[in-house]
Structure formats: structure tokens, C-alpha cells
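Appendix B, record 7
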Amino acid sequence: MPNIHVAVINASTVVKDEDFAKTVAALQIQVSRDFAPVWGIDATLRALSKQEKPTAHEWWLAILDDSDQAGALGYHDLTSTGLPIGKVFAKTDLHYGDAWSVTASHELLEMLADPTINLTVFDESNRGGRLYAYEVCDACEADKFGYKINNILVSDFVFPSWFESFWKPNTTQFCYSNKITKPFQLLKGGYIGIYDINSGNGWTQLTAEKVNHRARPPVGSRRERRSILTSNRIFSTCHSE
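C-alpha cells (predicted):
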């Protein structure tokens, strides 16, 4: 049995309990069937009812309305016991016409791959060197590149080969959908956090298009937290035991 246990919490006013339960079931299939064989990371998910609380050893995936609600309810950078937390802003997704289930899939897989939001890959082939954030869904995150599990749309994700610059185009599989054909490629709507070594300007977003509404990190998101020192991250105050 996987030693990572994730409590999935529905604190959103726009996600119905029935849709929530179906989505968590689809996410469990994605993690164990699709993601674990590629990344070697599996997890057991538990859908919490409104009355249930996570246990002290569980990571959290919180389904919230927006970043304002996250702050108001005390969902911050870490769980109440200092473990990883992922946040999904379902109401914000609906505002932009995006599927919250894709975002939930995205946040879950990225939390499993880089739980402390501090892993990077160094690519020396680009202008003296560039660090790429170890985010496994950003490059192919658009809903149109997702796929369905039991009629629930989930996010595409990259393989470890996406971060390996030695691969020639079309010589291996770079993402689950097979739509990416070479390392570091961004599909339409995709982006990735980079740190240019020469400029030293901190973390910036490399995007597939000049205009991308998802390129600016939402408050409380993984991308925003990557720029926050671990020692400055805030423990959540909700659902504490």
C-alpha cells in the first residue's frame, strides 16, 4: 500500500458532493494506474465529507472557491501538522471556463512529484544555464490536452524525459497524451517556471503564448509558494485536530 495518504477536502460552494466523489475516484485511478508506473510515486486518496477531518499524517488537497476563501478559511502553505498541501480554486476555474477536475488532477500530481516545491532541473544548453521548476503538468495543462477517466476530465502530465535535454525529438514518450514531441516543449496554454542563471532576476514564467491568463501565479498557488522561503511558509489553521 502507498505510504502517501492524501485527504481530499471539499470546502467549495460550487462543487456538488456527487461530482466531488466521482472526481476523487477518477483521481485515484489516474495516480495508481497512469502516474505511479511512470514516476514511481503512488498515493491513497480519501474523500472527506463536510463533517470529517484529516488525520495528522495525511497530506491535503483542498477544493476551494478562490484564493480569498483559502485565506479566510486558513488554508495556507502547509497542513496543520506541516505536511504538503495542494489547493484547487474551483470557482475561479469556472469563471475562466476551465474544468476544476483538471486543476485538481494537476495540483495532486505536482504535489506528489515535488511536495516541498523546491525541486529543479538545470539545463545548461540555454544561454549559459536555466533552472526549470519540477512541475509535471504546467507544460500541457490546458483542458483540451486532458483525458477522461470514467467521464471525469483529468490533466495530462509530462514524463521524466521532458526534463532530459539529451533526447532527440520523437525518440521517446514525453507526456501521457504523446502530444509533446521533445524536451521542454510547451503545448498551447502551457507554461513553466524558469530561473535564468545569467540574469539572476528570480523566478519567471515561460509561456507558450504571449497572452496566457494562467501565467500569473494565483495567491497561495504552488507557483507563488516556490518563491517563498520554506521557513516563511504558514501552517494551515483549519481542520486541525
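Remarks on this record: Residues 17-39 form the longest helix (23 residues). Helices lie at 17-39, 67-73, 90-95, 100-113, 222-225.
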